[in-house]
Design a protein that fits this description.
Blueprint (H helix, E strand, L loop, with lengths): L5 H4 L6 E3 L5 E3 L3 H10 L3 E7 L2 E7 L6 H6 L12 E6 L7 E4 L2 H15 L2
Antiparallel strand pairs: 1-2, 3-4, 4-5, 5-6
């Protein structure tokens, strides 16, 4: 019977953490990923406008992975979908957008704040 190897087997699940410079890297194993997710504030931006909150976070999981397996994207150029902006409250409640880079997420956060600013 083959021994299950987390570090090898789990990579297809798309778990990422951020390195010391804020760059996403594939998590070493499931335990390292879980500890990092538990101990880290993953917000990269958060704003409150009245009763509305706009939050942008590092997701830690590639939300584009299912799409990646469904087509012929090049694994050498594929960029994981790792950040998300979401609006809580107001007329745009539960609006969300996901991004492939921190820079795009911060730009999207700014646009979401503009959406909810009177």
């Amino acid at each position: 019977m083959q021994q299950f190897k987390w570090a090898y087997e789990k990579r297809w699940l798309g778990e990422y953490i951020l390195d010391a410079n804020g760059n996403p890297v594939i998590a070493e194993d499931m335990l390292a990923w879980g500890l990092w997710m538990h101990e880290t504030d993953r917000h990269i931006a958060i704003d409150r406008i009245g009763d509305v909150e706009v939050s942008t976070i590092f997701l830690g999981i590639d939300f584009g992975a299912a799409m990646w397996f469904a087509d012929d994207r090049n694994p050498l150029t594929y960029q994981p979908l790792l950040w998300e902006t979401m609006i809580f409250g107001g007329k745009h409640d539960t609006w969300q957008q996901r991004y492939r880079s921190r820079e795009a997420a911060l730009a999207g956060h700014k646009l979401a704040v503009e959406m909810v600013t009177p």
